[in-house]
Write a structure and sequence with these properties.
Chains A, B: Belongs to the gamma-glutamyl phosphate reductase family. Chains A, B: Pfam families: Aldedh. Chains A, B: It is found in: Cytoplasm. Chains A, B: It comes from Candidatus Pullilachnospira stercoravium. Two copies of one chain form a homodimer. Chain A is an alpha/beta fold and 415 residues long. The first copy, chain A, is 43% helix and 21% strand. Chain A is built from 15 helices and 16 strands. In chain A, strands 10-9-11-8-7-12-13 form a seven-stranded parallel beta sheet. Chain A has a four-stranded parallel beta sheet with strand order 5-4-3-6. In chain A, helix 3 runs antiparallel to helix 7. Strand 16 of chain A pairs parallel with strand 13 of chain B, so a sheet runs across the interface.
Chain lengths: 415, 415
């Protein structure tokens, strides 16, 4: 704990010094950091190989090993990511809504960094540079706690980035890595609310739950997505099938992929056999209610548990409903507040769905896969918030800022 | 816990039904609720008398008894508060920044209720109606947990409000009161993150700390204010003294009152004797460093603890500094992120103070006492946030809303 406190104090000090940097200076640092990562690629790859070896020894799955692996090309991509962040507009410093009060006070909200950001993530070393870039661009110091599986890779990347900061005469404590990856240290980190302004977990549902339950630092929940596509009775059925195929199969391991399909009973006879065939061609297992199974014989019975499941796999649950209201009620009961789509040609049902479905992103006639900072035009993404406070949906640079009121007076006192 | 879960489920159901109410309907309910509170004044006063009697029996301080007491006039004020909320613009439903993406998707952010708001507060029955009014106007269901000292008053007020909801054909579970005021129930309430979207504690530092440490529901921290006035070397000293007197003594028990004064050493000989006299006339005890005590003989020695203290009393700490930088560093070390003022005629130092002081509200040449939703022109206030996520500074109706992305497509899929 004492060691963590010292880290916290160092991050706070760095944060204060970051407030003085111009956007020009921050961009210079980001370009330098990108150059240095590519220059240091050989060392970084050697350290990554240690993690890979451990991973293989410990029986890590092929999918996880792929996420952990770095290559020259991936390091080039990571460096490119930092250059892209440099190219984005700096949101810090903007003053919003400045107005004069009747007593002459001029009051406005100035956009400022959050301060110190904590990020807890799993075995994806690319997050290390990415999180630094986004936090640094917005003037935040960042404390990273990566997974033990990627500790060598993360340390090598952080060493390179901190050296770039030093070379640019910036306090290198703008980026700190917790190298002790024990569970106790992680728990203690979550209690560091005196020094850390926000904690963002990036990883699976278990990690996120643990952070929500244990953190005294304000948390931004990201990621879990039990996303639905509802096909209304008035839908263009070929559009519906295309959207479902895209939302389910374009990439299955991501939070904005479709996990559950609702079909209005009036179109089930036309649509379900087509869906059964097309999803089957893509090796998607369908878990359906009785009505679905009567039209898709390959479907297996869905259990109550299936409706709340985020599979992240070639599996989908499927159900028929008798109205848009039933669809909305089902979604609001089982969803995780991520992304939901209605396919419809009814103006009334489209508006109702947009109004009543409780989620970060609600679509009419489009794939849920668009829920993404880049697709939304933010040029970057720190995660997708599924909570309601502060930021909801894809989070770009703005989500890493807060505001403070600045007030210009001329001697006003309150009577 | 089971009972609390049932409350949570009822609040969620009510929340869903509130989404369908028009602003007109919500305003009608608020007026009805105001009328009914005045109509039921006699019963409410009788119940309040029970709380007062218990308070007197239990040796409650005069200050707390005064906060607990209701009168015909106070009930009239509470009803007036509801009518004022009815008169405010409804922020729900506004769509912000709707733009067309290159692929034709039309993406915008719609302002929506947070959902279910939890409020934990102490013995101030006026908060009961006030919190209901603000939450209801923004389409939120609210679960209240008031102090045991005010349980009879709160129950009577809630009964009246719920009856008004029923009479207007609105689900009365839009307002729920936890009547079991035990510590265990309070703790369990803080874990109700499945049903409650945000928890707002309103009360003393102890209550707020307990909520931050125990809640799994996202919290908005409110209230603690160790506010500073810094008098720069170029200050108009008579303006400085007026601002200090106002910030310290206009009302001492509030979070935006000044608790600590910093004076540039170049003006200390002129200013401190005046301050000593004027604060002394108002019975303010001064706790000073050596340099202060050499000019104000009545001042007692300040300890390290004093610099971080929120007195909420006729006490102030006072210190001299040798530069604006020292003042800023001192403030950023000891403040609670509430409200800070510089009195200066230096453009450079004013800008530096606004840029570098880390607080919700940073003033030049004005009293800290203006940090208030009404003074800022919001027409209402749910509290003053001293944290950085979601809302910072005085919170009006907007702070009780979130956004969701709404996306209009025409069959877009991701490639």
């Amino acid at each position: 704990m004492e060691q963590l406190e010292r880290l916290g104090i160092r991050a706070r000090e760095a944060e204060t010094s970051l407030r003085l940097l111009t956007t020009e200076k921050k961009n210079q640092v980001l370009h330098q950091a990108a150059d240095d990562l590519q220059k240091n690629a050989r060392q970084i790859l050697a350290e990554n190989e240690k993690d890979m070896e451990n991973g293989r020894k410990n029986g890590m799955s092929a999918g996880l090993l792929d996420r952990l692996a770095l290559t020259e090309e991936r390091i080039r991509q990571i460096a490119l990511g930092l250059r892209q962040i440099a190219a984005l507009d700096d949101p810090v410093g903007e003053v919003i809504g400045m107005k004069k009060r009747p007593n002459g006070l001029l009051i406005g909200q100035k956009r400022v960094p959050l301060g110190v950001v904590g990020i807890i993530y799993e075995a994806r070393p690319n997050v290390t540079a990415d999180a630094f870039g986004l936090c640094f661009k917005t003037g935040n110091a960042v404390i990273l706690k990566g997974g033990s599986d990627a500790i060598h890779s993360n340390t090598a990347i952080v060493d390179s980035l901190r050296q770039s900061l030093k070379d640019c005469q910036v306090n290198p404590d703008a980026l700190l890595l917790i190298t002790d990856t024990s569970r106790e240290t992680t728990r203690a980190f979550m209690k560091l609310n005196r020094y850390v302004d926000v904690l963002i977990p990036r990883g699976g549902a278990g990690l996120i739950r643990s952070v929500v339950e244990n953190s005294t630092i304000p948390v931004i929940e990201t990621g879990t997505g039990n996303c639905h596509v509802y096909v209304d009775e008035t839908a263009d059925l070929s559009m519906a099938a295309d959207i479902i195929l895209n939302a389910k199969t374009q990439r299955v391991g991501v939070c904005n992929a479709c996990e559950s399909i609702l079909v209005h009973e009036k179109v089930k006879e036309q649509l379900l056999p087509v869906l059964g065939k097309r999803l089957g061609d893509k090796q998607v297992e369908i878990r359906g209610d009785e009505s679905v199974r009567s039209l898709i014989p390959e479907a297996v019975p869905a259990t109550e548990e299936d409706w709340g499941q985020e599979y992240l796999d070639y599996i989908v649950s499927m159900k028929t409903v008798s109205s848009v209201d039933e669809a909305i009620a089902h979604i609001n009961r089982y969803n995780t507040g991520h992304s939901e789509t209605i396919v419809t040609d009814s103006y009334e049902n489209a508006q109702k769905f947009l109004d009543l479905v409780d989620a970060a992103c609600v679509y009419v006639n489009a794939s849920t896969r668009f829920t993404d900072g880049f697709e939304f035009g933010f040029g970057a993404e720190i995660g997708i918030s599924t909570q309601k406070l502060h930021a909801r949906g894809p989070m770009g640079l703005l989500a890493l800022t807060t505001t403070k009121y600045i007030i210009y007076g001329s001697g006003q006192i309150r009577s």
